[in-house]
C-alpha cells in the first residue's frame, strides 16, 4: 500500500489511499484461504512456558492498535505482564473470583453450558503462559491540564482491537485464551492503572503445551449466522 499526502480538507491533511486490487478469482481464493486459516484458531488452556521474543509481542500490540475506533480515539491500553511475581498475584486474585463464581454466582444453566468445555475455577495458565496481555478500556482521556476528554464507542472500539489481537496471535503461530474473571477490578489494583481505565480482557499468550487437547466443538454454519437481503 502506498500513501501520498496530497490533500487538505477543511484544514486537515488527508493522504491518498492506494492498495493492490486483485482479480475476482484471486479475491475468492484469498478470502477462502483466510477463512480456512482462521477456522483453525482455538482457545487453548494448556500452555508451554517457552519464551517468546519481545519483538513478537510488540508486533501483536501494534497490529491490535490498527483497529478502527470511535473518532480515532484509540481508547485502549495493553498491559503486558511477564514478571512471575505479578502473574502469581493475578492468578491468585482471578482464582478467588472464579471460585466464588463457580460456587455461588453462576446459574445452573450457565454451569451446564460450560460442561462441554470442562472448565473450572483453577487457572494455572495464568502463571504458565510467558505473557499475559491485560486489555484496559479508557472510559475517557485526560488532557495535560487534567481535564477529561470524551472517548466514543469505547467498548465497541476495544472489542475490535481485541479481535485484531487474537487474529494476529493466531497468525504468528501462537495460542491465546480470552479470560474474563468477574469482577476484574483486582487487575486495576495489581497493575496500578489510573481511574479512567477499566479492565476489559485478560489474554494469556504463548505456545501450546506439547500435548494439548481442546473440546471438539463445531462452529455455526453460514446459514445460522448470516442473513442476506
Quick structural overview:
Helices cover 38% and strands 21% of the residues.
Characterization of this structure:
This protein is an alpha+beta fold. The protein has two domains: 1-40, no CATH class; 43-212, 3-Layer(aba) Sandwich (NADH Oxidase), CATH 3.40.109.10. 38% of the residues lie in helices and 21% in strands. It has helices spanning 24-38, 54-64, 84-105, 108-114, 125-128, 154-171, 185-190, 222-225; strands at residues 2-9, 12-18, 76-81, 131-138, 140-142, 148-150, 175-176, 197-206. It has a four-stranded antiparallel sheet. A two-stranded antiparallel ribbon has the order 1-2. Strands 5-6 form a two-stranded antiparallel ribbon. The longest helix has 22 residues, at 84-105. The chain is globular and about 60 Å long. 21% of the residues are buried. The model has no long low-confidence stretch (mean pLDDT 94).
Write the topology of this structure.
Elements: E1 2-9, E2 12-18, H1 24-38, H2 54-64, E3 76-81, H3 84-105, H4 108-114, H5 125-128, E4 131-138, E5 140-142, E6 148-150, H6 154-171, E7 175-176, H7 185-190, E8 197-206, H8 222-225
Antiparallel strand pairs: 1-2, 3-4, 4-8, 5-6, 7-8
Helix pairs in contact: 2-6
CATH superfamily of the largest domain: NADH Oxidase
Beta fraction: 15-25%
Using the CA coordinates, give the radius of gyration.
20 Å
Major sheet: arrangement of strands: 3-4-8-7
Number of helices: 8
Task: Give the helix/strand class.
Answer: alpha+beta
Q: What general outline do the C-alpha atoms trace?
A: globular
Reported for the largest beta sheet, the result is:
4 strands, antiparallel
In which range does the helix fraction lie?
A: 25-40%
Work out the number of β strands.
8
Amino acid at each position: 500500500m502506498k500513501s501520498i499526502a496530497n490533500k487538505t480538507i477543511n484544514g486537515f491533511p488527508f493522504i491518498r489511499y492506494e492498495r493492490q486490487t486483485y482479480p475476482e478469482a484471486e479475491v475468492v481464493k484469498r478470502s477462502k484461504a483466510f477463512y480456512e486459516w482462521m477456522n483453525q484458531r482455538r482457545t487453548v488452556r494448556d500452555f508451554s512456558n517457552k519464551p517468546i521474543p519481545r519483538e513478537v509481542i510488540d508486533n501483536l500490540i501494534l497490529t491490535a492498535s490498527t483497529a478502527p475506533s470511535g473518532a480515532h480515539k484509540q481508547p485502549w491500553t495493553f498491559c503486558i505482564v511477564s514478571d512471575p511475581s505479578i502473574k502469581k498475584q493475578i492468578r491468585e486474585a482471578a482464582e478467588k473470583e472464579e471460585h466464588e463464581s463457580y460456587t455461588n454466582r453462576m446459574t445452573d444453566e450457565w454451569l451446564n453450558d460450560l460442561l462441554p468445555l470442562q472448565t473450572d475455577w483453577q487457572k494455572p495458565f495464568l502463571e504458565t503462559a510467558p505473557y499475559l496481555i491485560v486489555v484496559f478500556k479508557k472510559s475517557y482521556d485526560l488532557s495535560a491540564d487534567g481535564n477529561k476528554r470524551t472517548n466514543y464507542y469505547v467498548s465497541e472500539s476495544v472489542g475490535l482491537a481485541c479481535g485484531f489481537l487474537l487474529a494476529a496471535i493466531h497468525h504468528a503461530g501462537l495460542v491465546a485464551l480470552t479470560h474474563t474473571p468477574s469482577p476484574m477490578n483486582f487487575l486495576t489494583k495489581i497493575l496500578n492503572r489510573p481511574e479512567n481505565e477499566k479492565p476489559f480482557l485478560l489474554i494469556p499468550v504463548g505456545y501450546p503445551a506439547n500435548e494439548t487437547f481442546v473440546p471438539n466443538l463445531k462452529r455455526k454454519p453460514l446459514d445460522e449466522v448470516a442473513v442476506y437481503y
